[in-house]
Structure formats: structure tokens, C-alpha cells
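Project outcomes to date are best conveyed with an example. Our students and postdoctoral researchers have been running inverse folding experiments weekly, and each run begins with a structure described purely in C-alpha cells. The record below, which covers 298 residues, was selected by the lab manager from last quarter's runs and is presented without edits.
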């Protein structure tokens, strides 16, 4: 069924020390995302990019500092506002990152009206807090903030407190978790399908179990971090981890989620054109978005 899609760009790279992921939205547009969505029959409006403060240094911030916390909070609030506008227009918000910190704003925006499911596809857990993070990078903390833990300014973006129940979160594709993060995840109530689970059960089983987990919910927000893919398929990411989701596994996962009819909003994050090879990662990201929004082989 054709959708009314609002494209919202978030060219933010404050969540990590590597530069370049702020160019992700431009790369995705350049690769033909909008025209290809229209070819599928969707009505697409490009809302442009939210305003991003200038980052005027190239090196990492000292570990003793809150790494761009104020800037990230400001940006996520702007993302929240843009997302709420799209929801009020009854559009499908498609957020283009930027690093995964943007999910603090995106999930807050789409979760305010009723309970929803959250499918978080990522090589990492993004479930650290300032106390557990080895690096202090905020792009490793957004999921924790969304369940109400971590920096209070992030927890309270959009509206006070937690934005989603851990019972309504499914993680897929994880293979690089920090020691304290593992402990936190095991205690959280979040459902997690690591790469071992995908290897043992197959991506079809994992995808269908995720959908069954949300049988009682009408809506799913999909957040796709391109480092969930194997670096052979997606080299243009800031934190690549070998042994990731394959090309066909990723498409099948998107297709099964699309078939559920419940995906009503989506993030596409961590495309770094500076680190990419011949725009391979941006191309794949666009292809996967099309699969998530209804493109099929037959």
C-alpha cells in the first residue's frame, strides 16, 4: 500500500569521534532514495535537514567531558519536533542519519501516542550508560536513554522519562557488546537475537519471532544501523565488526518486516561516505530501505 513518507535528514556526527557520518543523508539522497521510493508508488516529501550546530574540532573530546551532550540533546529535540510534525500529518517518518544518537529523538517522536514495538538492528547494543561506557561516546547509549537510563537530558528529550518498555524492544544482529553492557542487557527484559542466534536459527525464524513478539501492538519502529551488515557488504561505517548480516539476510529481514504491515517509521543511520568504497554502503542502505517499504522480488 502506498505511503505518505516524510524524509527527515539528521546530519549529526557528535555521537562519536570519527568524522564523516554527517554526510550520510546527502549520500542517501544522492543515491536516489527519493526517486526510487516514488517508483514504488509512495508519495514522498523531503523535509530537508534539521539544524545542526557546527562541530569545530576534529579530534576526540577528553574522556572527562560529557561528549557533546548539550549539542546532541539540542539536535534530538529538533528531531523530535520534526518527527512529531510528520506523525501529526499522518506521514511515515523516514529519518536519515547521522550517527545512532539520533534515535533518542526519533523514537521519542513516534512513540508518544500508543505503545509500539522497536526493532533495533545493529552490531552493537547501544545500551551503555555514562557509567558503563568504555569510550563515553553517546552513539553507544541511545537505547539506554530511551528506556529511561543515562544522561537525564537525553532521557527527557521530547517529554519526561522513558519512551519505550524494554519488553517491547527486539535487538537483532549484535556481535560486539561491552562487558558491563552484556550484564545490563541480560537484566533488562529486552529480547536480543545475536549473530549466533541468526547463525543457529536463520534470519527468517528470527524475523518472524520478532514480529510475533509484537503481535499485540499495531506499530513497529525500525532502526537500521548499517554496521549491522558485514563490512564486506557495507564498508562505509565508523565501527565495522566482522561477521555481520549478509546481503540476502538483510533483504529478507526487511521483506518479512514489511510483510507484517506494522512498520510505520524508520531510521537509517551510520552511513559514512568518507569510509565507503564506490558508494557501496549508501547503495545498499537505499536498497534495504526499499525492501522495508514494500519492494519485493515478485
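After processing, the design step wrote out the following sequence:
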Amino acid at each position: 500500500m502506498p505511503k505518505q513518507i516524510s524524509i527527515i535528514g539528521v546530519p549529526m556526527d557528535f555521537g562519536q569521534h570519527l568524522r564523516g557520518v554527517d554526510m550520510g543523508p546527502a549520500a542517501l539522497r544522492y543515491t536516489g532514495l527519493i526517486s526510487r521510493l516514488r517508483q514504488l508508488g509512495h508519495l514522498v516529501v523531503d523535509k530537508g535537514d534539521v539544524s545542526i550546530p557546527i562541530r569545530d574540532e576534529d579530534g576526540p573530546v577528553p574522556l572527562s567531558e560529557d561528549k557533546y551532550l548539550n549539542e546532541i540533546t539540542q539536535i534530538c529535540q529538533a528531531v523530535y519536533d520534526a518527527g512529531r510534525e510528520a506523525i501529526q500529518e499522518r506521514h511515515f517518518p523516514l529519518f536519515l542519519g547521522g550517527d545512532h544518537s539520533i534515535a533518542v529523538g526519533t523514537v521519542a517522536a513516534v512513540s508518544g501516542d500508543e505503545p509500539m514495538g522497536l526493532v533495533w538492528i545493529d552490531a552493537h547494543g547501544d545500551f551503555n550508560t555514562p557509567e558503563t561506557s568504555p569510550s563515553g561516546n553517546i552513539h553507544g547509549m541511545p537505547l539506554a536513554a530511551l528506556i529511561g537510563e543515562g544522561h537525564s537530558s537525553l532521557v527527557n528529550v521530547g517529554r519526561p522519562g522513558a519512551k519505550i518498555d524494554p519488553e517491547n524492544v527486539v535487538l537483532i544482529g549484535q556481535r560486539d557488546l561491552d562487558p558491563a553492557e552484556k550484564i545490563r542487557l541480560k537484566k533488562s527484559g529486552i529480547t536480543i537475537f545475536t549473530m549466533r542466534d541468526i547463525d543457529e536459527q536463520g534470519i527468517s525464524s528470527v524475523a518472524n519471532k520478532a514480529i510475533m513478539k509484537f503481535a499485540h501492538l499495531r506499530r513497529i519502529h525500525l532502526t537500521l544501523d548499517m554496521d549491522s551488515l558485514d563490512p564486506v557488504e557495507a564498508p562505509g561505517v565508523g565501527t565495522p565488526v566482522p561477521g555481520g548480516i549478509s546481503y540476502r539476510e538483510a533483504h529478507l529481514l526487511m521483506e518479512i518486516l514489511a510483510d507484517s504491515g506494522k512498520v510505520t517509521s524508520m531510521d537509517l543511520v551510520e552511513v559514512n561516505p568518507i569510509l565507503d568504497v564506490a558508494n557501496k554502503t549508501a547503495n545498499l542502505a537505499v536498497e534495504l530501505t526499499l525492501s522495508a517499504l514494500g519492494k519485493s522480488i515478485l
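Residues 23 and 143 are 23 Å apart (CA to CA). The chain has one domain: 4-292. The training component of this project remains on track.
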